[in-house]
Amino acid sequence: FTLVFPVTVSFPDSTQTTVNSPEELGQAAHDWNKNHPGQHARPEFLFPITVTLKDGTQVVVNSREELKAIKDACRG
Q1: Is 35 left (phi over 0), alpha (psi -120 to 50) or beta?
Q2: pTM of this structure
């Protein structure tokens, strides 16, 4: 599956940012970690998000648990 952008993510200090591509997502994480030495963190999605499955179907994902279930189903 792939993410449908834009998506909004949150960081441990409660800041949020909206990103429009995988590259922007990586850059946002890099920038946050650079500006918060000693606090390595990954951004968390603010749900709901939309993903596109391999067959082209779009699915609205409402929680981390739903996203994990989709990941697990894709792995087989």
Answers
A1: alpha
A2: 0.88
